[in-house]
Amino acid sequence: MTGRPTHQKGPVRLKGGQLPDTTTDQRLLDSRGDAGWVHTDPWRVLRIQAEFVEGFGALAELGPAVSVFGSARTQPDDPMYAAGEQIAARLCEAGYAVITGGGPGAMEAANKGAHECGGVSVGLGIELPHEQGMNEWVDLGVNFRYFFVRKTMFVKYAQGFIVLPGGFGTMDELFEALTLAQTGKVTSFPIVLFGSAYWGGLVDWLRETMLADGKVGAADIDMLHVTDDVDEAVSYFVARDDT
Question: Residue ranges of region Disordered (predicted)?
């Protein structure tokens, strides 16, 4: 056997010479029955394709932008919430759109800062079991079912990341961006970690353990810029764009 598909002329017959009860076309066109087919892999491929098309179409004319990440659990009275607002406002004043995950907490703060500054406030939402939906400060929102499609948009349409304190989701975005930059999949992609008290221990571990053990290079660690100063965080992008 070659493993190649075979083509049979005439009606497909079951064992014993019986004709099948339904045809492929009939099952496709018949609107009756359950909706199980929408969960099959071929249909998922089309939905994934549709999400890419929707994201590309919505963001194609966005212009310069920076993705701002941080915890959805950050409360409005947390100093990092105010920092997120200020960072977004400074980015707006420097001519950047602000992209977040569109949710609450640090994402809401950044969207609010961009919106109130009169800039472009973008939210890229994700379908989650307990997702609250887009925050009220999002001007341009796109919802996604698939994380990897959404992640592509964060990187493709941003000049870099500013990362506020966050949890697993924030770490996921951070280290994926580091991997893409380290492997040359993205170039000239600055990553700012805002909040030295929060991020300092991580950066120390990267240097003292990963780097010391030869698992990464010094240039890999240098891709991270840690600061507590809002203006410094934003000027890190502006300076690169001016060169």
Answer: 1-28
Q: What are the start-end ranges of the H helices in the chain? A: 24-29, 41-59, 79-93, 106-117, 147-156, 168-182, 196-205, 218-221, 230-242
State pLDDT tens for residues 25-46: 565 566 555 666 666 778 888 8
CB 110 within 8 A of CB 84: yes
Domain spans of the chain? Answer: 63-242
Q: Which residues pair with 11 in a beta bridge?
A: none
Reported as type and span, the H/E element at residue 225 is strand 224-227
Contact 143, 126 (CB under 8 A): yes
DSSP secondary structure code for residue 130 in this structure: T
Angle at alpha carbon of residue 133, lines to 128 and 137, rounded to 5°? 145
**63-242: CATH number:** 3.40.50.450
Distance of CA 183 to the CA centre of its chain: 18
